[in-house]
Amino acid sequence: MLSNDIKKDAMRTFSVLMEGGTAIVPTHVGYAFVGISEEAIHNTFVAKRRAPGKLHAFTGCKPLHDALHVVDDRASAAVDAIWREHGLTIGCVAPARLDHPIMKKLPKTVFQQSIKDGTVAMLLGAGPFLDELGRLSLENEIAIIGSSANLTHRGVKYRTEDIEPEILAAADLVIDYGLMRWVSYNFSSTMIDFRDYSVVRYGACFDLIQDILRRQFGIVIADHADDASGIPSAS
Q1: Inter-residue contact 67 to 100 (CB < 8 Å)
Q2: Could you give phi then psi for residue 165, rounded to 5 degrees?
Q3: CATH number for the domain including 37?
Q4: Which residues does 110 contact at the CB level (< 8 Å), separation at least 6?
Q5: Range of the domain at 180
Q6: How many domains does one find in the chain?
Q7: Cβ neighbours for 22, distance < 8 A, ≥ 6 positions apart
Q8: Considering the domain boundaries, does residue 129 fall inside one?
Q9: Reduced to 3 states, what is the DSSP secondary structure of residue 63?
Q10: What is the pLDDT of residues 133-172, one digit of tens each?
């Protein structure tokens, strides 16, 4: 049996998104529902029954993180350790370079709903497909906005056959790579604000990320806390 053709599938996805469509794509922390245009992003929110005030998150990769996020050397090393050294998925919240062409090209409404206190959220280390999609995003200087492919408050879906029919029907393209890696957690990504290492959202790989930060960087993050309001979520 042939392996997934990641480059071909990512290019096919990017073409659909550039034409104003939406797509369901594989990530290590479940399937994501993504778009580029203001209308497409709005359509994903409507299909998910998601509150319009929720902030957007960027699908990303390490080079896109390096281009858009402003972090100090310690934070950069911590992200690199989590992503590259240990192969984990992390939702990275950090100050953004608002003068970057990607940010300047965002439609006004999308821009306003992508920034919180000068920061943007980006999913990193979420698998080779998202890495390739992130590469295309950076290469073409266009943001790809995403959230989990499920109805609001119905939980992350790790198989396409578990995604609600309403969500599948709203997508112009579905890339099905089978069961996703971190299914045993049954949560979306852990999200950390790398300005102060506060936990924005507890999720997949939190125990491993917490251990890496403590052992390698002397950073202690709390075991339990309420999610911060207004931050991109899996719902």
Answers
A1: yes
A2: -55, -35
A3: 3.90.870.10
A4: 38, 41, 56, 143, 145
A5: 6-217
A6: 1
A7: 16, 33, 34, 35, 40, 43, 44, 170, 171, 172, 173
A8: yes
A9: helix
A10: 999 999 999 999 999 999 988 889 999 999 999 999 999 9
Does residue 232 come out as left (phi exceeding 0), alpha (psi in the -120 to 50 range) or beta? beta
d(CA 176, CA 151): 18
Task: Report the distance separating Cα 22 and Cα 86, nearest Å.
Answer: 31
What are the tens digits of pLDDT across the range 16-36?
A: 999 999 999 999 999 999 999
Distance of alpha carbon 180 from alpha carbon 127, whole angstroms = 9
Q: Residue 153 CB: number of other CB atoms within 10 A?
A: 11
H or E element that contains 6: helix 6-18
What letter represents residue 155's amino acid?
A: G
Cα separation, 150 vs 168, in Å, equals: 9
Q: pTM for the complete prediction?
A: 0.91
Helix (H, G, I), strand (E, B) or coil at 170: helix
d(CA 174, CA 111): 26
Q: Binning pLDDT at 50, 70 and 90, where does residue 55 land?
A: confident
Could you write out the DSSP letters of every residue in 17-28? HHTT-EEEE--T
